[in-house]
Amino acid sequence: MAFGDVKSAQGLNQLNQFLAEKSYISGWVPTSADVQVFEQVGKAPAASLAHALRWYNQIASYTPAERKAWPAGASPLTAGGKPTAPAAAKKEEDDDDDVDLFGSGDEEEDAEAARIREERVKAYSEKKSKKPALIAKSSILLDVKPWDDETDMKEMEKLVRTIEMDGLLWGASKLVPVGYGINKLQIMCVIEDDKVSVDTLTETIQEFEDFVQSVDIAAFNKI
User: Fold this and answer.
1) Measured over all CA atoms, what is the biggest interatomic distance in the chain, rounded to whole angstroms?
2) What domains can you pick out in the chain, each with its CATH number?
3) Within a 10 A sphere around the Cβ of 38, how many other Cβ atoms?
4) Reduced to 3 states, what is the DSSP secondary structure of residue 137?
């Protein structure tokens, strides 16, 4: 599916529909296509565009250096009616193509040619080694349930968001009716797997025992 100007209401709606059953723009992992669309969108979509907002918050949780290291992906943004190729990824591929690992010239390789080849191999290896490694992350949707219909849900959410951990980023939230006038707080977060334990996070939320009855994991996705 290709869509046009994602800064327009129509383009954002198309993006939201596109992401209804997808985690990323191209494939099962984040790619340069996500970066391209993310930069075109420019700011978080409205809460009514839940799928686009969920995707935007996930991409925003990565640093610019991490996004730059993502592999190439096919972008659905259109130019003249045809999907555009991710320019940044293509440029990086072109840069790699400029490195001739095997050299060229006569069959009888002299010392100078061997030295030049070794320098190119060394430069290529250093270039690859400087690329930052992807950090394993997970997107989690939590159901935070109150004791009764008299629980101050705004204060509950405020307390939940006061929880700060290295590798934790809070996202969008909403109240979901569960019956008898009671609402539960449904809140999204992104964690770095090596830094944040899901069990520790849920236990910390449950420490607000005057407000929170229980915490359940509604959805858990590796990013």
Assistant:
1) 86
2) 9-69 (no CATH), 137-222 (3.30.70.60)
3) 19
4) strand
